[in-house]
Write a structure and sequence with these properties.
This protein has 148 residues and is an alpha+beta fold. The chain is 20% helix and 14% strand. The protein contains 5 helices and 5 strands; from the N terminus they run αααβββββαα. It is elongated, with a radius of gyration of 16 Å. The structure holds iron/sulfur cluster (SF4) (2 copies).
C-alpha cells in the first residue's frame, strides 16, 4: 500500500492510480516492510529509508534498522515505522510528497516496501479501498459501501 501514489505504475492496471495520495495518507504510517525489503535497503546503503523503521528481533528486543546488518535481517519478527528522532509513531508516511495541487507521489517509488508495491485498492478483497479516486472514476463502487 498504502499507498500508492505511484503504485499504480507498477501494475497492469497501470493507469488506474490517479496519484491522489489518499491511500498513503490514510494507511501510509502503518506500512510494514518485509525483512527482504530491509535487507535490500541495507545492501544498497539506503540509510535515509532505514532510519524510519525499527525491527523486533527473535529475542523480543527492538533495534533501529540503521543498526542492523544484512545477516541480522534473518531474525526479524516485526518491523514498525517510527519517527527517527522521537521514536514515536508518525502520523503520515515520511516518503509521501505533494507534487501538485491534488497530486502526490512516493519519494522512494522504485524501492518502496512490498506492501505498497502490491497494493491494489481497486481490486475487491483484502486491499479494497472504497475511497480510492481511481475506483470512483471507474464507477466501481462496492454495493457494500452504500450500506449505512
Ligand atoms: S512508502 Fe510510498 S507508497 Fe508506501 S505509503 Fe509511503 S508514500 Fe505511499
Ligand atoms: S487512493 Fe487510489 S487513486 Fe488515490 S493514490 Fe491511492 S490508489 Fe491512487
Amino acid at each position: 500500500m498504502a499507498g500508492t501514489p505511484g503504485t499504480g505504475e507498477d501494475h497492469e492496471d497501470e493507469d488506474s492510480c490517479m496519484q491522489c495520495g489518499l491511500c498513503c495518507r490514510v494507511f501510509g504510517n502503518g506500512i510494514s516492510p518485509t525483512p527482504e525489503n530491509i535487507y535490500s535497503w541495507i545492501v544498497d546503503g539506503r540509510t535515509e529509508i532505514l532510519r524510519h523503521f525499527r525491527a523486533c528481533r527473535a529475542d523480543g528486543t527492538w533495534i533501529r534498522c540503521t543498526e542492523l546488518d544484512a545477516p541480522g535481517t534473518g531474525s526479524i519478527t516485526a518491523v514498525e515505522m517510527r519517527d527517527p528522532e522521537t521514536g514515536e509513531y508518525p502520523t503520515v508516511c515520511p516518503f509521501l510528497r505533494r507534487v501538485g495541487k491534488t497530486r502526490y507521489t512516493c519519494s522512494i517509488h522504485a524501492d518502496k516496501p512490498d506492501m505498497c508495491r502490491n497494493y491494489m485498492p481497486w481490486v475487491f478483497g483484502e486491499t479494497y479501498f472504497p475511497r480510492c479516486r481511481a475506483l470512483e472514476k471507474k464507477g466501481e463502487v462496492s454495493p457494500w459501501s452504500r450500506i449505512p
